[in-house]
Amino acid sequence: MQPTASRVTRRALIAGGGAVVAAAAVAEAVNLRWLPGRSSMYRALGLNGQPGRIPDVTPVPTTSGSFVSKARDGRTVGWTIAAPESSEPLPIAVALHGYGGSHRTFFGNGLGYDRFLAEHIAHGGAPFAVAGVDGGNRYWHRRADGDDPGAMVLDEFVPMLEQHGYDTGRLAFTGNSMGGYGALRFGGLLGASRVRAVAALSPALWTSAGDTARGAFDDAEDFRANTVLGRQRDLDGIPVRIDVGNGDGFEPAVRTYVDGFTTKPTGGFEPGAHDAAFWRRMAPAQITFLARHLHA
C-alpha cells in the first residue's frame, strides 16, 4: 500500500503545485488588467498599505451656511469653510467632494482636513483655508437638465468666498474621486492666470465614453465635451499633484492621463484603494503641496 500512498501524495503535490501556478497566473493577468477584479485582488491580498489616520488635534474653526444657486436651478447649496485665525486675507483651496459626498466630506470625521490643516500649521506650515460646497452627483459640469454645478462653483461660490474675505487671487482646487476630476477640470477651465495649484485624490477618469459610470455624463457627446483626457495642456503653468492607489479601479485611466503631460504631475502611484483610508494617508502631502503653491 505504501507505493500507492506515495503516488497519491505525489499526485496531490503535482495538482497542488499546478493550482498555485494557475492562481499566480490568474493574479498576474488581473494585475496586468487582462482580467477584471484588480481592486478586489489588491484588497484581498492586503496590498493597499496602511490606512491614514486623522490626527488627534484641535481642528481649525469651521463655518457653514447655504445659498440658493441659480446655476443649479434654484437648489439650496450647503457650504463649509475651514480656516485658521488670520489678520490678513487667506488664500483658499476649494475642495470638491466625490459621488455621494457633500460640503462636509473634507471635514470632521470624513477626511478630516480641518485637523490635518491644524497639524500642518502647528508644525510651521503656511496657513490657508479650505472650502467645500455641495455639487450633487452631477460630476461638476453642466447637465442636459440644466443643472450646472460647475458654473455654481466658478460663478457663485468663488465670488462668495471673496465676499467673505478670502484671497481668491490665490486660489486652488482639490477633490477626491468625482471631485478630483472636477478639480482638474476647473483648473483647466480657469488656467494659470487664476489658479495657483490643483491637487487631485484618485480622480474618477475614463478613457472612453463607453467605460463611464452610469450618470457621470449624459451621453458620449457630453463625455467628449467634458473629459480632461487630451486636455492636459489646459493646465500648463499650474502645479498639479495627483495621487492614486495601485489597487484603485481608476488607476489605469489615471496613468494614461498622467502620461499625457509634458511635465509630469507631482504625486504618483502607490499602495492604496479608492477609499478614505488612502485619501487620509495622502492628506498631509496634499496639504503641504497646496500650501507651498498658494504662498508662492
TrEMBL record:
GO terms for molecular function: acyltransferase activity, transferring groups other than amino-acyl groups. Transmembrane segments: none annotated. This is Trehalose O-mycolyltransferase.
